[in-house]
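Worked Example 4.2. Consider the chain below.
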Amino acid sequence: MWKPSQSGSIVPPPVPEPSRPAAPTAPAFEPVARAAAQVSDQATIGKGLFVKGEITGSESLFVDGKLEGSINLPGNRVTIGRNGQVQASITAREIVILGKVRGNIAASDRVEIRVEGSLTGDVTAARISIEDGSYFKGGIELRKPEAKSPVPGTTATASPEAPKPAQA
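Applying the procedure from the previous section yields the following structure tokens:
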């Protein structure tokens, strides 16, 4: 260290800066990582593809090309993109239609026919949404969603009567 009483200038040797570990990623980036993981769990049939046959599996599907046959993804989501043209029966948890579908569809949860979407066929689902500007021709069968038991191991029962007080 240089003191004003010293004559001449003494420069201390440069000390290398200690390496620091990389800062942990902020929690704000976690949802982005999760969203990317969800996207990777979705198979895609692109605009230039034509598939003929049966599709089964355990991940969601996005169809933007042409498909003929059947799609059976009972626990997943099937999305027909704006360019998608599907002539198939579809079974899935959720079905979203933005393109053209010809065939019967069954969803354990919901069906959405969005603007410019077109469906010709019968629908079986717990919920359905048909937006203005879409096309639908067919029948609709609404099923009640499966009731979940309030306590594991018990069954939910509906009783029209109120419980009667116990007599002593």
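The mean pLDDT is 79. The two ends are 96 Å apart (CA to CA). Compare this with Example 4.1 before moving on.
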